[in-house]
Amino acid sequence: MNTTRMIFRAIFIAVALFSALLSLPVVPAAAQVAPHDDAAAAAAFEALVPVLRHPRCINCHSTGDFPRQGDDSHRHTMRVHRGPDGHGINAVKCSTCHQDHNLVGLHTPPGAPDWGLPSPAIPMIWEGLTERQLCELLKDPDRNGHRTPEQIVEHMHTPLVLWGWTPGEGRTPIPTPQDKFLSNVQEWAAKGAACPVTTPPPPLGNNPRAKRARAEQGTSPIRPNEAGK
Ligand code: HEC
Ligand code: HEC
Questions:
Q1: Residue 55: closest CA among 103, 126, 107
Q2: Tens-of-pLDDT digits for all 229 residues of the chain?
Q3: Closest ligand to 89 CA?
Q4: Which residues of 173-201 are buried (b: 16+ CB within 10 A; e: fewer)?
Q5: Most CB atoms closer than 10 Å: which of 10, 83, 204, 217?
């Protein structure tokens, strides 16, 4: 066998091997480890709800045109308002007091990058929502800042969210271990982002009487979340 033929043969074998490799079915990594599983996704979501309802989160995700403070979620003092973009009104911007890190000492402003409220257009109000409504809001691009479930997972890894575990002196950190929370979020999204079916008793502010009162005033900030659910 001459050298040229040997070289051609080697090339032929290499090409054959390569195309065999290419023809292997390509399965996305996420799908390989976690096929859709509605029950598991819904259970993972239920497990992360206590974090979403914790004051460290709800203080920026509550009804009203202002942030809240403390474990009792009282209205933010010093006439702080959401403002046109969520970052306060001209005279009192969040960044006037809040920096990208916690300040040292009791009752000093906490801080994280992008400290502010969601905008009035997409206020991301979670207060008063059932587990299912919360889940549906988090999946709804019109109400979640145009995010896919995967992008919700990413957002859960931002310093602003993770701040809840290191909230600064005098504030209760979120008790659910951070890695547990993040793996629940990941599991929820990877297994298809299904929502819990069970609807627990409506929490405070979501009872028929309060709804009627809000409808009469025509000012309910949480009504859009309830529409059609
Ligand atoms: C200082 C205020 C603040 C705190 C505290 C805060 N958030 Fe948010 N959150 C925001 C803002 C502002 C946005 C909108 C950001 C955007 O769209 O870019 C947002 C958006 C989100 C979103 C995406 C929108 C949605 O509703 O689906 C998620 C998820 C979220 N936050 C999770 C959390 C969690 C979990 C905590 C607590 C561990 C938390 N946030 C605490 C201000 C806050
Ligand atoms: C004039 C200063 C000032 C401005 C402006 C201000 N804050 Fe604060 N904020 C504070 C101080 C001080 C604290 C801490 C209070 C304490 O611990 O007793 C605080 C606490 C908070 C907390 C409580 C965190 C928790 O979980 O207990 C949130 C949320 C918050 N601010 C959001 C905002 C947002 C959003 C804006 C802008 C829309 C804003 N603040 C504007 C001074 C300010």
A1: 126
A2: 455 666 666 665 555 555 554 455 444 454 455 689 999 999 999 999 999 999 999 999 999 999 999 999 999 999 999 999 999 998 899 999 999 999 999 999 999 999 999 999 999 999 999 999 999 999 999 999 999 999 999 999 999 999 999 999 999 999 999 999 999 999 999 999 999 986 654 454 555 555 655 565 554 444 343 333 3
A3: 2
A4: ebebebeebbebbbbbbbbebbbbeeeee
A5: 83
pTM, to two decimals: 0.81
Angstrom distance (rounded) from CA 59 to CA 54: 8
**What CA–CA distance (Å, rounded) separates 26 from 141?**
28
Q: Which of 48, 52, 58, 60 to mutate to test the pocket of ligand 1 (most atoms within 8 A of CB)?
A: 60
CA of 126 to the centre of ligand 1 (A): 10
Do the beta carbons of residue 131 and residue 196 sit within 8 Å? yes
Q: Which residues pair with 89 in a beta bridge?
A: 92
**Cβ–ligand 1 contact at 110 (below 6 Å):** no
Distances (CA, A) of 81 to 14, 71, 73: 67, 19, 15
Rounded to the nearest 5 degrees, what angle is found at the Cα of 127, between the Cα atoms of 217 and 59?
115
Q: Provide CB contacts within 8 A for 138, sequence distance 6+.
A: 144, 149, 152
